[in-house]
Every structure is written in structure tokens, then in C-alpha cells.
Amino acid sequence: MQAITFSRPATFALLLAVLAGCATPQTRMPTVDSAAMQEETRKQREMVVEDYMNSYRRLQAVASRIVMSGTELCAEKVGPYYGLTAWSREDFGKEWHDVVQSRFSVSDVASISSVAPGSAADQAGVKAGDVVLSVNGWTPPAGKGAVDKLMEKLAQEGKFGMPLEMVVRRGAEEVKVSMMPGQACDFRVRLSPDDVKNAYADGQNIVIYKGMMDFFHTDEEVALVVSHELAHNAMKHIDAKKTNAMVGGLVGLLLDVAAAAGGVNTNGDFMRLGSNMGAGVYSVAFEQEADYVGLYFMANAGYKIDDAASFWRRMATTNSRAITMKSSHPTTPERFIAIETTVEEIRQKIGSGQPLKPELKHASSEMAREEVQAIPH
Question: In sequence order, what are the residues at sequence separation of 6 or more whose Cβ sits closer than 8 angstroms to the Cβ of residue 153?
Fold first, then answer.
């Protein structure tokens, strides 16, 4: 039997004929004016950007307080800190350029997007909206990458521990400001515009999603999640996972080689499997440690930790499987109990005037070693 074939024009005509027979709406609806629709599109985009920036500034204000007070827990990962962030229209898609420039006066030159309360920038009088004209005589470039280059320059100049002279344009006038950088945990905090309830740390950055910011009820909840992700970076969990993945991959490679010696080509399946399994080893423990150390970051920043466990109860309502299913994270009941225990531990330290430092595994053995060395021989 010969197969029936259709040309593209014939297929298109057939589809049109079929669609012509579909049911139609029954009311006479208003005609939408294209100019009015464009204006409404513009208003909604303005609202989106304004809502995003409100969340961004709230996040930076909370995060700044945590990274400035957590330097002792971040150990060697500490660097110069001014407490300001910047943005340009190049941070947005082209369809957003007109809105951010006309409504928020953001051009292709980097301008200050947020100033954290109590930071060096705040004390120097830097304001959100200031357009950066020069940094110690250096003129920031415009266009793509302008913000990253500015932030790199600030970090570079801050390493010398000298006052930073900056000229900004504020409205119609040029203003000179002088800032002495402080010290903070050297991890950038970013806000992703995606509407999902998630956050992550990658060893260098802390990324909070807009959907998570909308989920937070209080600044304490913002601080809880930022502190948790900061703990991942400070405790080098990402580096540890990479090391574990490499170890698992090497074991898998040995199995691939052994299989090849027996005449079986695995195409590297054992190495990939071993790498994935290695990366997942201790994932739950790393999450538990981030909860534990994160509460110390939060307490050191002066945030109330009493309701920390309740946040995870609320998170459980958005993912009920987490109540009983343990994958890369602890179950939410396990998390709740462990956090409550940590909160009590921190309360006792505050009450007795002890330093707010996490208890390390080797602390007891180090103390025992010191006691033995102190005994006369």
C-alpha cells in the first residue's frame, strides 16, 4: 500500500479548514487599543523592576549585616567591604532598557543600586542612584560588564587599606566621597529574578531567588537563609563535594578499566556513576552543618533565632514530601529538632557570656592534648 504524503501548503490549508470549524466566543468583547496596550506593558514592566529592586535592597541590607559581623567564622575568606552594589541597564534584556533608563535613570554607566545601613558607603554618604564617574582617578567603562569591572576595581583598591576617593554624579552635581573599606566575608550576594522558592551557594556567591524573597515574612527569615548559604561557602562544602566527586570518579574509572580488560566497553559509565555518587556523599550532613553554622552567623549579626525552626515547618507546606523523604537534605522534622537544639545551645552561650562559635569535632581532642602537655613529666 502506497503511503499518503502531504506537501506543506496542503497541510497548512487542511489545518486552517479544521480550525475554521472550532467553537468561537459568544460575546462582543471590547477592542484593545494597541497604544493603550503598549502603555500598560510599560507600566507593568516598571512595577516588575520596582518590585525586584525593593527585594534586592532588602536582601542586601540583611546580607550586609551578616557578612560584616561574620568575619571570624569566615576565617581566611575575608576581604575589603564597602556595603554598596551597582547596576546598569545592561543587567537587563534589551526590551527592559527603555523602562529602567526613563523610570529609574539607569544607563549603560554603572550607578549605585543599594547602600547597606551602617556600611562604609553609608557612613561616607553614598546614595542609591549615584552614578560612578571615577574611583581613585580611574574612569569606569560603560556598556556590557560595567558593573563587574567596577566591583572588581573596588575590591582591588580596597586591598591596600587606604581611603577610596570616588566621584559620583548626584542629580545635576558632582559629589566627592571618601571611604575607608571595612572587612566582611568575601562572598557576593545576588538576587535571581526567577519566581522559584530556592537559594544556593557556589563557593563564591550566594544566590537567592525572587520567589524565595516573596515567601519570606520577616527579615529574620531572610537572614536565616542567607546565613545558611553563607555557611556552605564558609565551611567549603562546594570544594568538599568536588573532591568527593573526583574520588568517586577515580573509583569508577578503575572499574571501567577493569571492565575494558575483560572485553567490555562501558563508555565511562562507572566513572560517571562514581562521580555522581561521590558528589552526593555527605550531602545531608553538609546541609545539617549549614543549618548549624548558619544559626551562629545569624546570632552574631544580632538577629533573633527563636523562630528559625518554624520557618522550615512553613517550607514543609510547599513540599510535603520533605517531611518524610530524605534526599540531599534532611527531612523537615529532623531539621526542626536539630535547629531547636542549636538555638538552645546558642542561648546558653549568650547567657553565660561565651563566644558565639560553633562546636568543632576536634575541639575536645585539642583541649585534651593541651591538658596532657600541661602535666609535669
Answer: 135, 138, 140
The pLDDT of residue 286 is 84
CB 286 within 8 A of CB 241: yes
3-class secondary structure per residue, 197-242: CCEEECCCEEEEEHHHHHHCCCHHHHHHHHHHHHHHHHCCHHHHHH
**Under 8 Å between Cβ of 273 and 339:** no
Q: Where are the alpha helices (DSSP H) in the chain?
A: 8-20, 34-69, 71-74, 94-104, 120-124, 146-158, 210-215, 219-234, 237-261, 269-280, 283-300, 308-316, 332-352, 363-374
Could you give the strand order of the β-sheet that contains 199-201, starting from the edge strand earlier in sequence? Answer: 188-192, 205-209, 199-201
Strand partners, 200: 207
Domains of the chain: 47-201 (2.30.42.10), 219-374 (no CATH)
Average pLDDT, the chain: 83
Q: Which residue has the cell 596532657?
A: 372
pLDDT at residue 265 tops 50: yes
Q: Nearest-CA neighbor of 165 among 207, 142, 117, 132?
A: 132
- What are the angstrom distances between the C-alpha of 122 and each of 56, 64, 82, 152? 17, 12, 8, 20
Residue 145 makes CB contacts below 8 A (sequence gap 6+) with 90
Q: Are 285 and 231 in contact (CB under 8 A)?
A: no
Q: Does residue 188 contact residue 224 with C-beta atoms inside 8 Å?
A: no
Residue 151, φ and ψ in degrees, nearest 5 = -65, -35
Say which residue, 98 or 247, is predicted with more confidence.
98
State how far the Cα of 243 lies from the Cα of 249, in Å rounded to an integer.
10
Between strands 173-179 and 164-170, the pairing is: antiparallel
Instruction: Work out whether the CA dihedral 55, 57, 61, 64 comes out positive or negative.
Output: positive
3-class secondary structure, 22: coil
- Please give the average per-residue pLDDT across 60-77, as a whole number: 95
